[in-house]
Amino acid sequence: MEVGNLIWLGYIGAAAGLIFAFIQFRKVMQFPEGNETMKKIAGAIREGSNAFLKRQYKTVAIFFTVLFVILAGLAYIPVLIAGDWDAGLVNPFTPFAFISGGIICSICGIIGMKVATYANVRTAQAATDSLNSALNVSFSSGTVMGFVVNGFQIFETVTWFVVLRYVFGASDEIIAQTMITFGMGVAVVAVFARVGGGIFTKAADVGADLVGKVEAGIPEDDPRNPAVIADNVGDNVGDVAGMGADLHQSNSGALVATIAIGFIAGYGVAGMLLPIIVCVIGVLMSIVGTFFVRTKEQPDQKSLLKTLSRGVYVAGFLAAILTLPAILFVANGAYVDVVDAYGVVVGEVNNMRANGWGLFGAVVVGIVSGFVVSALTEYYTSDATKPTRELAESSQMGAAPLLIGGLSLGMKSVAGPIISISVAVLVAFFISSIGGGGFDAGLYGIGLAAVAMLSTNAIILATDAFGPVADNAGGIAEMSNLPAEVRERTDALDSLGNTTAATGKGFAICSNAFTALVLLVNYVYLVDGQLLSAGRDALDLSVINPAVLIGFLCGAAMVFYFSGLCMSAVQRAAQGIVVEVRRQFKEIKGLLEGKPGVEADYATCVDICVRSALKEMIAPTAVAIISPVVAGVVLGAAGVVGFLAGTILSGFALAVFMLNSGGAWDNAKKYIERGNLGGKGSEPHKAAVIGDTVGDPLKDTAGPSFNNVMVLASTVAIVFAGVTVAFSLL
Length: 730
Prior knowledge:
Elements: H1 9-29, H2 36-82, H3 94-126, H4 131-167, H5 172-216, H6 228-264, H7 268-290, H8 301-332, E1 335-339, E2 345-350, H9 356-381, H10 386-394, H11 399-413, H12 415-431, H13 438-453, H14 457-479, H15 484-533, H16 546-587, H17 602-616, H18 618-673, H19 683-719, H20 721-727
Antiparallel strand pairs: 1-2
Helix pairs in contact: 1-4, 1-7, 2-3, 2-6, 2-17, 3-4, 3-5, 3-6, 3-14, 4-5, 4-6, 4-7, 4-14, 5-6, 5-16, 5-17, 5-18, 5-19, 6-7, 6-13, 6-14, 6-15, 6-17, 6-19, 7-8, 7-13, 8-9, 9-12, 9-13, 9-15, 10-11, 10-18, 11-18, 11-19, 12-13, 12-15, 13-15, 14-15, 15-18, 15-19, ...
């Protein structure tokens, strides 16, 4: 069997993922919705979520249209002027690949959010029966998101490969470049979704908690709180739609970067197809892993974490085993034409065969490093472990010690993931070079490790996306006055979801660091080739080159400036919610007292969040897109390399810090709310609520947004490499 024909296996993997997602969706829809009050509340959440996404993607469409016109101009105007198809500053497929990536990424987020808004009320109703029933509904809804993301990711990649290779007869080089281009479209949508959804959800959450819990002393999700519906809407648009776009970008970024490195490494079609096959195996094994997620009626964090981890570990273990024969088969048939100086084929060579076992080792390294990162994130953020419980205990001394402790915890937590990924990169590099291949083979191994880390992302995302559903279910239970044990069950799942959400974000951050490193190498190879073709010197990447050094500093500055824009956006939007909630408590007579027939004006709070998020998401996204282009024009290609390196190094560390600090503060609050250290309404609880409100924009807006920015900056730099070479001042 010719290795190139294995591309059709991609459609099998994509179909399996999408069909399983549809089956899970049908399963969710078969569960009952509960009483009329529950249906009414769920309908309001669904309506607000749909309204926000509709307005958000209208804004994104305008942004995409502008970028499409720019890319089309760079691709075709030089061609028309010179009369040469090779004259374009970007390849002719770039504008269309960019648009397709954005559309697919948007679809993934929309589908996941819609399913979540149907599953939340069904989870609340299922919690009236048992914890296991509630987990069954919420986790099933999460699997829809997980398998839609992976299914569409494989489908899009395979389709572009087939169209370029078999319809247009494009070279392997053009295929590799185009893959990265649609990765840019995915990354742009992911940043918009993360930033916009993150601003919405955290503005509502912070505003609702500060006025409702701290000032008024009413429970979370109390129907008297005017921001309660906006808070639940935010869970869907930020933690579901945003996370879906985020993880789709992580998957796509790792996949397309490794495909490009497969070409650079001289592995030909086999090197470009192997990452796709690894993803197919991961999707199939993720389906198997979902059947191992079951729990008993023991609503403690440790047993629930064990339940979800079982499914993830089974999927990863099986994927590692089945990847070996696939790699050896592909490597055995990886023949590449040898051409002479005149372009005449004079023979064949197999550069991959001797590296088969080494590449398998890189896959194992990627999967294991994913598990290590998950364990480290779980250790620092779960309330079943020492760091978060000690953080919760510090709340007995007030908010200040709690805040200091959370910052300290986040800073210390950075070392583990960075060391783990560094070790994984080194091991993957050296082990994949076994048998020859040198530097390029090692780089390919790093990319393959990143793909392997995310190959079972379908079930990882499922364990993440169920959390917001459980959170919504708890809100619906509270507002519907369901029995106390129902809220106890949904709170157990919600607390678990905070930890698994942190784990999923940790996966995304670390895999994006992997991916960004591979994309950085792609950029160096691409620009070096363009410079040499133009008769210019190759890149000088010495650290003492002023352009490289200044690029480092500018990349780090962009990281902090972007994060500051996200944080200040949440601050301004949250202040608007605080003012509105206070106004309603003061002006709507009988609202705070719970007088029958008096209802809060939920729609106004939703509208404040929508308008704030849509307005504030533009600036951070624009900074992330424009800054690599400006760096290229001002500092040249060497400066861009420094800029990307500074972005990756500082962005990786800052994202992990923000993620783990925020996650620990959140779970410390939930630990107290379960009756520890005085329980709800106590002074430690009020301090923990303040810590949670500080941590919310860290872990759900700025932190997860930046893991997309690392890849977005790299893909933008690659797409605009021709502009940098043609117009740079240095």
